[in-house]
Design brief:
Elements: E1 2-6, E2 10-14, E3 17-21, H1 23-33, E4 37-45, H2 48-59, E5 63-70, E6 75-82, E7 85-90, H3 103-110, E8 114-120, H4 127-139, E9 142-148, H5 158-165, E10 170-174, H6 177-184, H7 192-199, E11 204-208, E12 214-218, E13 223-226, H8 239-252, H9 257-271, H10 283-288
Parallel strand pairs: 1-4, 1-8, 2-6, 4-5, 8-9, 9-10, 10-11
Antiparallel strand pairs: 2-3, 6-7, 11-12, 12-13
Helix pairs in contact: 1-8, 8-9
Length: 301
């Protein structure tokens, strides 16, 4: 599977711990572990943290050829966890507010084909990156356009939601975000999913539900639910990103929606028992996901 993602690359800072994150990076890092060929469109600063970020992206097996070196500092998010739930404070402006591509880079993407183009709301908070996303949605050719709603306070706007929905075929949000999205679109929350199917190109709506698991609704009227494994939760950061990655991965392999969701929920349940958004997979998990062999950390050719 070939995947390309647009958006924020940043460092999650939780006390003395610092790990590379951002939803696009997390999703792609898991996709690479699952065996995908992945590429990110983002920006880092002209600073030591930016140089370290590029090294980490390469170590994760993600192609960083479309990462801009920006005069703004590399992004970071200071995390506070209360009752197992994470809240974030982002530096601004930062490098991922300044994502730009050259004409040659747009042409490179135009001439390529992907299974999925992944993007979200947060990186639209500044106009430079928002306009880059608008152009990418016209340029990138993909079988699926995966719109990941990440509502973060004042950075969440109706315009960013509507921009993301213009091309989306799969919409992902949490059950807590659903009523907020409905309010932004002036739709009754109980009617939002039907409204999306009737008024946009969305064919699947993936809803993460925390300890209750996740559900997926389909335009043809089908729906399925996968319960969350009963585990001791250590760290919820990145759990939703692992859900997205596995869901897309197994769909790309031809599995039906219910099977893909079950395996995605299994991976998310594993991630919350570990520190960090992209922990190493143990052999038991690999067997449960039917992953063959091991995936090299080297960047795929």
């Amino acid at each position: 599977m070939k995947a390309v993602a647009f958006g924020e690359v940043l460092w999650d800072v939780n006390g003395d711990e610092k790990t590379l994150g951002g939803a696009p990076f997390n999703v792609l890092a898991h996709m690479r572990k699952l065996g995908g060929q992945v590429q990110i469109i983002s920006a880092v600063g002209q600073d030591a943290l930016g140089a370290h970020t590029l090294d980490c992206i390469e170590d994760a097996g993600i192609s960083g050829q479309l990462i801009r070196i920006s005069p703004f500092p590399t992004g970071r998010a200071d995390i506070t966890i209360v009752d197992g739930n994470a809240s974030y404070v982002f530096n601004m402006p930062c490098a991922w507010d300044d994502i730009r591509l050259s004409p040659d880079q747009y042409m490179e993407l135009f001439n390529d084909e992907f299974y999925v183009f992944i993007y979200g709301t947060l990186a639209q908070r500044c106009m430079t990156s928002a306009l880059t996303l608008e152009k990418l949605l016209d340029v990138v050719s993909a079988q699926e356009y995966f719109f990941d709603v990440n509502l973060r306070g004042r950075f969440s706007t109706c315009k960013s939601i509507r921009r993301g929905l213009e091309k989306a075929t799969i919409l992902k949000m949490s059950d807590e975000e659903l009523p907020a999205v409905a309010a932004m679109l002036s739709v009754d929350s109980e009617k939002l999913i039907k409204w999306l199917f009737d008024n946009t190109g969305v064919r699947k709506v993936l809803v993460s539900e925390g300890s209750r698991g996740a559900s997926c609704y389909e335009k043809d009227g089908g729906s399925c639910h996968a319960g969350a494994p009963e585990v001791k939760v250590l760290d919820t950061v990145g759990a939703g990103d692992s859900l997205s990655a596995a869901f897309l991965h197994f769909l790309s392999r031809g599995e039906n929606t219910g099977s893909a969701l079950e395996k995605a929920s299994l991976l998310a349940g594993y991630v919350v028992t570990k520190r960090g958004a992209v922990p190493e997979y143990d052999e038991e998990l690999r067997a449960q996901l039917s992953l063959q062999g091991s995936v090299s950390s080297a960047r795929p050719e």
